[in-house]
Design brief:
Layout (H helix, E strand, L loop, with lengths): L37 H6 L9 E4 L6 E4 L4 H18 L2
Antiparallel strand pairs: 1-2
Length: about 90
């Protein structure tokens, strides 16, 4: 089931110009597992055996899965977005 028909395409797993998008809806099974959809795995070049960090959203409303080597760039982008948002409210 597709959740959103998105207008921003993913051109490359290294393309940093696109905002995060919802790729699909997953279900947590009775063991607490989810399957990462093929489109999402392909978009970030994740393969069987790869390690991902599981980060909880501060509001405890969700999680983010990220490659360990992408954590620093992810954090920098989030700080930049927060700074830009703060500036727009001044």
């Amino acid at each position: 089931m597709r959740v959103i028909s998105y207008s921003k395409s993913i051109k490359s797993s290294k393309n940093t110009n696109h905002e995060p998008i919802i790729l699909d809806l997953v279900t947590v099974n009775d063991k607490g597992q989810v399957v990462i959809p093929a489109d999402a795995r392909s978009a970030i070049d994740v393969h069987a055996g790869d390690k991902l960090l599981v980060m909880m959203h501060p509001s405890k409303e969700g999680i983010v899965l990220i490659k360990p080597d992408g954590l620093e760039s992810y954090a920098k982008k989030m700080l930049e977005k927060l700074s830009n948002a703060r500036e727009s409210f001044k």
